[in-house]
Fold:
Amino acid sequence: MNPVRPDWPYPRWLAHRGAGLLAPENTLAAFRLGAQHGYRMFECDAKLSADGVVFLLHDDTLERSSNGTGLGGALTWAELSQLDAGAWHSRLFAGEPLATLAALARFCLANACRLNIEIKPTPGLEAQTGRAVAREAAQMWAQAGTPPLLTSFSTEALLAAQQTAPQLPRGLLLQELWAGWLPAAQQLGCTAVVCQHRLWDAALQAQVRAAGLRSLSYTVNDASTAERLLALGLDGIITDRIDRFAPD
Structure:
């Protein structure tokens, strides 16, 4: 007898880093634009500043998505907050600052939006980042709203999140199906696995369902891939193309 899969209070479509490619990723401007396109769930990347503030940044370093240099986690939030995280994208967004997780949480709660927080630690800070993200998420969503889904490629970060806020749902991110991934997801109390879209086929979906887990895919930007994944019955699809796919 297969385990009962957990309730899933999330939309099927998630806007990657706020608005995909249409706005500077992981900024509040991106989440506002994603909401304007009708999206009601977003994916973001969270890491720690040097003084322990949880902020949004995908890369370890600042160069690609801001006018800063070096490791993002090596700067204090006071220093990070002065950076321009929008001009690299386009003149329209010049001057857009980096965002904190707290600011995004307030936006999501005010607009009844849901969130997938990818724990994206600076190397060496996996456990500290997992604890901090889980603690802040638990506090921000304690009184209202559907709690965020915490995901990570780092099992160390997910373990720390599990120990800190076991009530928050978790998902294991997978770029490949490494040996022992399913027992690891189960031991971490995950409710979902989030796989690179090429990994998904009928056999993997059946395996995940049989384990009582939900199935999500990243990053899906073409119609044929989306149709294939929808036919498999995936629970969540993360996309950059918020202009192409209408959320449901």
